[in-house]
């Protein structure tokens, strides 16, 4: 067993998942990867992460749905969730804006395009 903290990166863009994962690994975190909300939940059930970086707009189950499921469950409510939001998300749906990252049960959010240094600071702040 390792003492490195586990972070699950969830986004339907494989390139983004890879770039975030490489940055996290360079900061000495363990990383797991998923490409939609359904796959992410299966990974979480297999090994509970310390933090989830979660895209909002994904197929099968979006980030808002997964975030709410996790935060309302007894087993997973303590997982830190950072939502990834895009300006296009707010335009595509009048129901969601960047502020919804805060009005959901998420612990934090970061807008796309991602500033990796800013994301690393958010991760560090929540896990230290």
Question: How would you portray this structure in words?
Answer:
By secondary structure, the chain is an alpha/beta fold. The protein has a single domain (6-127), classed as 3-Layer(aba) Sandwich (Rossmann fold). Helices cover 42% and strands 21% of the residues. It has six helices and five strands. It has helices at residues 14-26, 37-46, 63-71, 87-92, 100-103, 116-127, and strands at residues 6-10, 30-34, 51-55, 80-86, 108-112. Strands 2-1-3-4-5 form a five-stranded parallel β-sheet, sandwiched between helices. The longest helix is centred in the N-terminal third of the chain and has 13 residues, at 14-26.
Q: How would you summarize the topology of this molecule?
A:
Blueprint: E1 6-10, H1 14-26, E2 30-34, H2 37-46, E3 51-55, H3 63-71, E4 80-86, H4 87-92, H5 100-103, E5 108-112, H6 116-127
What is the gist of this entry?
With 128 residues, the protein is of the alpha/beta class.
**What top-tier CATH class fits best?**
Alpha Beta
Q: Percent helix among the residues?
A: 40-55%
Q: Could you tell me the radius of gyration in angstroms?
A: 13 Å
The portion of residues forming beta strands comes to 15-25%
Major sheet: 5 strands, parallel
Number of helices: 6
Principal-axes geometry comes out as globular
Fourth CATH level, the homologous superfamily: Response regulator
Give the low-pLDDT segments: 89-102
Oligomer: single chain
- Count the strands? 5
Distance between the termini: 20 Å
What is the string of SSEs from the N terminus onward?
EHEHEHEHHEH
């Amino acid at each position: 067993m390792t003492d490195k903290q586990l972070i699950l990166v969830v986004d339907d863009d494989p390139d983004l998942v890879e770039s975030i994962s490489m940055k996290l690994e360079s900061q000495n975190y363990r990383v797991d990867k998923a490409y939609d909300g359904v796959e992410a939940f299966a990974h979480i059930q297999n090994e509970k992460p310390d933090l989830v970086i979660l895209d909002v707009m994904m197929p099968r189950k979006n980030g808002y749905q997964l975030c709410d499921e996790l935060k309302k469950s007894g087993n997973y409510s303590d997982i830190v969730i950072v939502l990834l939001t895009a300006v296009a998300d707010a335009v595509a749906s009048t129901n969601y804006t960047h502020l919804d990252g805060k009005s959901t049960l998420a612990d934090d959010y970061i807008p796309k395009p991602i500033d990796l240094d800013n994301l690393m600071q958010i991760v560090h702040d929540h896990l230290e």
